[in-house]
Write a structure and sequence with these properties.
seven-stranded mixed β-barrel; about 20% strand; TIM Barrel; two-stranded antiparallel ribbon
Length: about 270
């Protein structure tokens, strides 16, 4: 069975997901559910998590280990041309990259990058914004064979160059895999798909067909929209959030998509 990869995001990506890393069956009715409740419901043996903070790795590792599930973990970070450049103009060079953990040494090595990105050199503050940034030079300096590189679908340099007319020229530390979002329901998706196809040059081994999971069911989209609006200090009618016009980032959507795909293959 050639499934589309479910890429879970959790509450450790603050303001970006309704899902938690709790033990399965711990959630009370009406409360957010754990990714492990969802993965266990379909008997997943491998769980892919991509979060925007490194804090959640240890909890994810402990729970997955107790369940006998293989954890595939990715840390999404902001990368710019020069982390020492604190000007507003430097934001135009920003994009996201995913550091993949390959083995037991990966956590410590990714932590070194994370600490530098969030330290004095990399920490970026502008008005209400405050976040950590690495640059490509830092990634190359600290990169080892224990780490893998992937490009996210919505905010890699490929998507940023296309959708925001940026001219980001990354100095990648390794050949990346590229996550290609399936059935996002967003109008600009075909444009990103074309950019990915051009970048990979038809090398299918570089492309990972995936679906981002942010909540359990499509019906949860309204609650997710409100959650994002609260986090963004906006309103439900005007959430002011990019890419928030589709309810297809649910676990149920991923499950139905795979069932349809595999029924056709059968």
């Amino acid at each position: 069975m050639n499934d589309i990869l479910a890429v879970f995001r959790t509450h450790y990506s603050i303001g970006s997901s309704l899902l938690t890393l709790d033990e399965p069956s711990k959630a009370k009715p009406g409360n957010p559910v754990s990714i492990f409740d969802l993965s266990q419901s379909v008997g997943m043996k491998d769980v892919m998590i991509v979060d925007e903070r490194i804090d959640g790795f240890l909890q994810a590792y402990k729970v997955s280990n107790r369940l006998g599930v293989k954890l595939c973990y990715g840390l999404k970070i902001c990368v710019c041309a020069d982390m020492g450049d604190k000007t507003v103009e430097s934001k135009k060079t920003e994009s996201k990259a995913i550091i993949l953990f390959r083995n037991s040494q990966s956590y410590g090595e990714a932590t070194r990058i994370w600490n530098r990105a969030w330290g004095h050199e990399g920490h970026f503050v502008h008005r209400t914004e405050s976040y950590g940034r690495a640059d490509w030079k830092l990634l190359k300096t600290y990169w080892t064979e224990n780490l893998g590189l992937a490009l996210p679908y919505f905010n890699s340099f490929l998507a940023r160059n296309l959708l925001t007319f940026s001219q980001i020229t990354p100095d990648l530390p390794a050949q990346p895999w590229v996550f290609k979002e399936i059935d996002s329901g967003l109008p600009f998706a075909p444009l990103i798909d074309s950019a990915i196809d051009r970048y990979t040059g038809g090398v299918t081994d570089m492309i990972v067909s995936s679906k981002t999971i942010l909540y359990a069911r499509p019906e949860d989209f309204k609650a997710y929209n409100v959650f994002r609006a609260i986090h963004n200090k906006s309103t439900f009618d005007k959430p002011e959030q990019a890419h928030l016009s589709s309810n297809r980032f649910s676990f149920q959507s991923w499950r139905e998509l795979n069932e349809k795909k595999n029924s056709v293959l059968a």
